[in-house]
Amino acid sequence: MLIRPSTEILPSEITPEGIWLNRRQIMTGAAAFGLAAALPAQAAGELAHRSSPLSAKDDKNSFEQITQYNNFYEFGTGKDDPAKAAHSLKTRPWNIVIEGECEKPQTFSIEELLKIAPLEERIYRLRCVEGWSMVIPWVGFPLSELIKRVNPTSKAKYVEFISLADKEQMPGVNRSVLDWPYTEGLRMDEVMHPLAIMAVGLYGKVLPNQNGAPIRLVVPWKYGFKSAKSIVKIRLTEKQPQTSWNKAGPNEYGFYSNVNPEVDHPRWSQATERRIGEFFKRKTLMFNGYGDQVAGMYKGMDLKKLF
Ligand code: MTE
Fold first, then answer.
1. Is the entire prediction scored with pTM above 0.85?
2. Residues 237-249: pLDDT tens digits?
């Protein structure tokens, strides 16, 4: 796939319609329920949050870069398609159904999800399998806090994440580029790891539609495609779930997909990456630089076989 340098971003693309729609939806929603007065200091679309010691120290990419250069195949396969098309996504009402190997299967509304745990800003590196990277100030909460609410049974070994697939709202779903809905999966210890979060915002604001509104997964030590967007269902399973990218290319996209400069993609090297906005490539770090925190989970595993 071709990478478009950030310098080529057109000025006309810079105010993503999705963000304005998000703000409008929230404002009308709040007014309808008489909640406007309950949100005095917070401007519309802003999320109250605290900073996290788990943030990376790297320079952040700009809001424009993060919201204009996206992968969200439900809105097209071009990097600028999501910013142009994702305004058609309706993010309210929104629910996540959690089912499978748990004692308390239940449905959480987005309003309930926003209250699962205090929101934190987590500045994370995102390394895409295509060879580029960004640094994104997400706002979110630990995924583990959500999973704990449903009391996983001892049979829950894996967790499957399922994105919305609605042809009416998502033009890309009419094309069979992937087996819809987009699904991803993690092992239970990965799910419970403190670095894995559910993101509901970035740069202190409600998540723009093109970044996976209203709620998405972010797993910073894995290639970006593991971080499913616009999630509507989470299933706890005993067996390793199938994933969309693994089905599309079994020898190109494995289940684990940990960032690993030593395991090349069959069609290109993974040893280096281009940080969006930078000219020179940088070396890709094992586990995207989160090795100290996560390497222990893969001790004894052959990461070349289990890529
Ligand atoms: N989730 C869904 N539902 N559909 C997608 O096409 N693309 C993935 C991931 N999550 C994708 C998705 C890929 S390949 C990447 S690199 C990241 O989202 C990109 O996230 P960003 O656009 O917010 O940077």
1. yes
2. 999 999 999 999 9
